[in-house]
Specification:
alpha/beta; seven-stranded mixed sheet
């Protein structure tokens, strides 16, 4: 009997949000054992996972389940290959790569992950609020991000089908760069040289000088 697979993913966006996928793995079911594999380079650690597991076991009737937490440095492509080959016994994946979306389409088009539409239209244990109501921008962002893109011949266009990807946390990511070098090379010159922009920058305490009709930032309150 194949065990159910749940997969959490961290798409690398400017406003990063982790996500959930669900489906079937190729591994053989091990009774009362849940294997949880998390991407240990995402910076979140595992303490929150341990707390979540303990809360889940305390609040439900699944106290006899043994949850094994396994750190992993794999990204989406490696884990998808393991799932596709049937060598993975993991039930829950936490990763940081949107390559998991390829798993929506593999396995002869059936995918390895289950449609979570019914799940998000239900409530978490002990709560009345629907899961989808707790997800920011669910209809505008996550319904499309987590769905399978297919061609609908009746509408003659690509539509989103199902829901396989859900966020489980969010955080900010940003590039790290040499500020002085970028400033010197004119890479921080997106502000147009107008009286309105100059007034706005001055009111924020941002110093600048004009060069070739561009405003070069010399300093900012956070520098």
């Amino acid at each position: 009997m194949k065990k159910k697979l749940t997969l959490f993913v961290l798409p690398l966006l400017t406003l990063t949000a982790n996500a959930l996928l669900s489906g079937c793995s190729g591994g053989t079911d091990k009774t009362n054992t849940i294997y949880l594999e998390y991407f240990n380079k995402s910076g979140f650690g595992k303490e929150w996972l341990d707390n979540m597991i303990n809360e889940w076991k305390a609040a439900t009737s699944y106290k006899d389940f043994d949850v094994i937490v396994v750190p992993s440095s794999y990204l989406g492509g490696d884990q998808i290959n393991q799932i596709e080959s049937g060598t993975s016994l993991t039930d829950i994946f936490f990763g940081s790569n949107p390559e998991y979306k390829t798993g929506f389409y593999l396995n002869n088009g059936n995918g390895f992950f289950e449609d979570l539409t019914d799940l998000v239209n239900s409530s978490a244990y002990g709560e009345s609020k629907l899961i989808k109501e707790k997800i920011p921008n669910f209809d505008s962002t996550w319904r499309e991000t987590g769905g399978k893109q297919i061609y609908d011949s009746t509408q003659d266009k690509i539509v989103t089908s199902g829901l396989y990807l859900l966020p489980y946390t969010s955080t900010f990511t940003a590039p790290i760069f040499n500020y002085d070098d970028w400033l010197e090379k004119g890479l921080l010159t997106k502000a147009p040289s107008t009286d309105e922009v100059k007034s706005a920058l001055t009111s924020q305490g941002i110093m600048f000088h004009e060069q070739n009709s561009k405003l070069i930032f010399d300093s900012a309150p956070f520098s």
